[in-house]
Write a structure and sequence with these properties.
about 290 residues; alpha+beta; Nucleotidyltransferase, domain 5
Length: about 290
């Protein structure tokens, strides 16, 4: 068990295990009465270690370990946590899984940035491997943008959507950890990516069948989804001209919809209003199963 340092006010310099390592350790320097709590070593205004104070008190190994600790921007209470779990996750005993700012909440091995979340985190690597997206060792040293560019250049078009969906899914999973304290398994991310890709390929297939309207008519495509449990529907619209140019798009949530027929009837009415609102007077209305002119 060890400490994640924030304001340093809960941690005894001499009695607690707070220096990084496997396992975390206590300081080995001779005790000094000059300082007592880790907070005494922190320049609170700068959010950095007070090196002038640290240097004369600690031995070389301790100084190196102290300075290796990344200073959190948070001034909240320190967090007591388990270290070195097989899963790479720390269990926060004081605040129940509050993530640590700046460190990857998934593996807690590195400062969290785009590159870590999308590529370097062991969790991300497992996801990429399972989706069969690979890159050469030298690409691992590139910055995120260049790495992504390399990924697109070295994979065929069919994989481009997969790459984009995977990046988005990894970021989404990261946000779930931060905001909801939910830790999705990497296999769940892989399944989600595959589901999106299947859905996307169906939509692409449908789009391939879309026929533009004859000039000067426009075409309004619409669709609706209905939740019986929530008694809600959501209607979506897109209007294109004869060149396929999008003239407008939008969606409307409607409450108190009690059955699917209501939702399907309503979407047609909403579609007409939608077209009228954006100044379209002649349009063909089309959905998967209906065509009304
Ligand atoms: Zn990580």
């Amino acid at each position: 068990m060890g400490w994640r340092i924030r304001n340093g006010m809960s941690i005894s310099i001499w009695n607690d295990c707070w220096l990084l390592g496997f396992p975390v350790r206590k300081v080995t320097s001779s005790q000094s009465t000059q300082v007592d709590l880790v907070s005494d070593l922190i320049d609170m205004d700068e959010r950095s270690w007070n090196i002038d104070l640290i240097n004369p008190i600690f031995n070389e190994a301790d100084i190196e370990s102290i300075l290796d600790i990344h200073m959190s921007n948070s001034n909240q209470n320190d967090i007591l946590c388990w270290k070195g779990e097989g899963s790479g996750l720390y269990t926060n005993l004081l605040t129940k899984r509050v993530s640590i700012s700046n460190f990857c909440p998934r593996c807690n091995q590195s400062i969290e940035d785009n590159t870590h979340v999308g590529r370097d985190c062991p969790y991300a690597r497992k996801v990429w491997r399972l989706l069969d997206i690979r890159w050469s060792d030298d690409a691992s040293n590139l910055c995120f943008k260049e790495w992504l560019l390399r990924l697109f250049m070295t994979h065929n078009k069919g994989k481009h959507i997969c790459i984009a969906v995977t990046i988005w899914s990894l970021w989404f999973a990261r946000n779930r950890i931060i905001c909801e304290h939910q830790y999705p398994l990497f296999v769940a991310i892989v399944q989600k990516c595959r589901m999106y890709l299947r859905h996307f390929s169906i939509r692409t297939h449908v789009l391939a069948w879309w026929k533009p309207p004859l000039e000067p008519t426009t075409k309004l495509n619409f669709d609706v989804c209905f939740s019986y449990a929530h008694q809600k529907s959501c209607s979506g619209f897109i209007i294109r001209d004869s060149a396929g140019f999008v003239l407008g798009s939008g969606f409307i949530h409607t409450h108190h919809i009690t059955y699917v027929f209501m939702a399907e009837a309503l979407v047609i009415l909403q579609g007409v209003h939608f077209a009228k609102d954006i100044g379209i007077t002649r349009s063909t209305l089309e959905s998967d199963s209906k065509k009304i002119t």
